[in-house]
Amino acid sequence: MRNIIVSMHVTLDGFVAGTEGEMDWIQLDDELFDFVGTFTDKADTALYGRNTFQMMDGYWPTAGDQPDASKHDIQHSRWYNSVNKIVISESMKGFTPDKVEFIGDNIPDEIKKRKALPGRDILIFGSPSACHLLMKHQLIDEYWLFVNPVILGKGIPMFADIQHRTQLQLAEIKTFSCGVAALHYKLKQ
């Protein structure tokens, strides 16, 4: 069984984006990028909601080819181009780019089928609406929450419409010089 792992930047008060989807508050540095690279080394699939997929697909396919590409741009671009991508979207059916599968019907059952296939981890970067749906159906195995030193007061919450208790155990805490604290939680066994 493959694990679905969420990697999400959050504010101290639990938001993943501002009210208009803004993410200009996210703190990043090379140390954090290198750390996230350890996740991609263990994953062969990315899972996105439609909006995040369109944002990622508009940047990552060619990011590593740019003359001013950073080490992270090159690494993540290679990973993005090599892995399978699952996109939760009812509106993008029929659109079939290479290595992309769109799921718009029976989403929980379809995701369970993908988890049961042989392979490595399935990563979710961002995609709060996809996370909310998967949380609702208890399909997420691990959370990496990158807590940023900011309080927004309002925005898109990390956890929304939760209908059941989910017991987690803290597996690891990592801090970064940019002020971000990464909290790693796994489902409690």
Description:
This protein has helices at residues 30-40, 50-57, 60-63, 71-82, 107-116, 128-136; strands at residues 4-11, 15-17, 43-49, 84-88, 100-103, 121-125, 142-148, 156-157, 168-175, 181-187. The chain has a single domain, classed as Dihydrofolate Reductase, subunit A. The protein is an alpha/beta fold and 189 residues long. 25% of the residues are buried. The chain has an 8-stranded mixed beta sheet with strand order 5-4-3-6-1-7-10-9, sandwiched between helices. A two-stranded antiparallel sheet has the order 2-8.
What's the helix and strand layout?
Blueprint: E1 4-11, E2 15-17, H1 30-40, E3 43-49, H2 50-57, H3 60-63, H4 71-82, E4 84-88, E5 100-103, H5 107-116, E6 121-125, H6 128-136, E7 142-148, E8 156-157, E9 168-175, E10 181-187
Parallel strand pairs: 1-6, 1-7, 3-4, 3-6, 4-5
Antiparallel strand pairs: 2-8, 7-10, 9-10
Helix pairs in contact: 1-4
The CATH topology turns out to be: Dihydrofolate Reductase, subunit A
Give the distance, in angstroms, between the N- and C-terminal Cα atoms.
15 Å
Enumerate the spans where pLDDT stays under 50 for 5 or more consecutive residues.
Answer: none
Helix content: 25-40%
- At the fourth level of CATH, the homologous superfamily is Dihydrofolate Reductase, subunit A
Largest sheet, spatial ordering of strands: 5-4-3-6-1-7-10-9
Global Rg: 16 Å
Instruction: Give me the number of helical elements.
Output: 6
What is the overall pLDDT average?
Answer: 92
Order of helices and strands: EEHEHHHEEHEHEEEE
Q: Provide the CATH architecture.
A: 3-Layer(aba) Sandwich
